[in-house]
Amino acid sequence: MSQLFTLRSLQEEDEDAFYAADQEFKASGDFDFVSHYSEGMEFTKLIQLLEDQEHGRNLPEGHVPSTFLFGFVGAKMVGRIMIRHQLNDFLRRIGGHVGYGVVPSERRKGFATRMLLESLPICKSLGLDTVLVTCDEDNVPSKKIIENAGGIFEGFSDQGGGLPRKRLYWISTT
Ligand SMILES: CC(C)(COP(=O)(O)OP(=O)(O)OC[C@H]1O[C@@H](n2cnc3c(N)ncnc32)[C@H](O)[C@@H]1OP(=O)(O)O)[C@@H](O)C(=O)NCCC(=O)NCCS
Questions:
Q1: What mean pLDDT comes out for the span 131-155?
Q2: In 3D, which of 129, 141, 148, 139 has the Cα closest to residue 167?
Q3: What is the pLDDT of residue 173?
């Protein structure tokens, strides 16, 4: 990681970097890179949606306010992290406060670890003294990332539907 890494919100000049990251992430078959984005959406609309989400405006039913931040190395978008400002029943059992993803070509370079660690002071500034971070029980890298960040294992939660159980961890932000 020789070039400067930054974690920040989405800006208008990030349009090409965002599309490249979204396409690459999509091709990997993992979850949506940014669930608020749908193919063909104006980039400025996406920025507005993320700002609204952060300020709790026009939230879809069952959603809580959240902050989306993107990891960059130079102009390249390498990943993203989402901080939910509070938990609801689903997030308490399955999703947790924080979720992250790294584009396939940038994996195994420490970016997810870095994004999680850099998100913790931001969580604290949102009033969260501890954050719930979860991963599928068979997600070896994510388990390592959470444990390396000081995650205290609470237990498993059943997702149902034949899906792997979730490992639930709490990380202190103080
Ligand atoms: C999981 C994911 C975020 C990891 O991102 P990453 O940037 O590659 O992770 P890091 O480079 O910070 O690696 C963290 C640890 O996992 C290890 N690791 C990374 N990929 C691994 C793999 N495929 N197999 C085994 N270990 C792996 C690293 O060696 C490192 O361990 P160490 O600290 O002991 O050296 C990324 O693979 C991803 O986006 N996957 C799809 C979405 C996802 O699963 N998100 C997490 C949901 S909980």
A1: 98
A2: 139
A3: 98
76-90 pLDDT, tens per residue?
999 999 999 999 999
Query: What are the phi and psi torsion angles at 64 (to 5°)?
Result: -110, 160
Tens digit of pLDDT for each residue in 44-86? Answer: 999 999 999 999 999 999 999 999 999 999 999 999 999 999 9
Ligand 1 pocket, Cβ-based, cut-off 6 angstroms: 30, 99-102, 107-113, 135, 139-142, 144-145, 148
CA distance 86 to 64: 7
Atom 39, ligand 1: residue with shortest CA distance: 101
> 62 is in which domain, residue-wise?
5-172
Closest CA to 51 of 36, 62, 38, 61: 36
Q: Which atom of ligand 1 is nearest to the CA of 31?
A: 42
| Number of compact structural domains in the chain | 1
Read off the tokens for 64: 């809580």
Of the candidate ranges 13-17, 38-42, 74-78, the one whose mean pLDDT is the lowest: 38-42
Report CA Rg, the chain: 16
> Which CATH number belongs to the domain containing residue 31 in this structure?
3.40.630.30
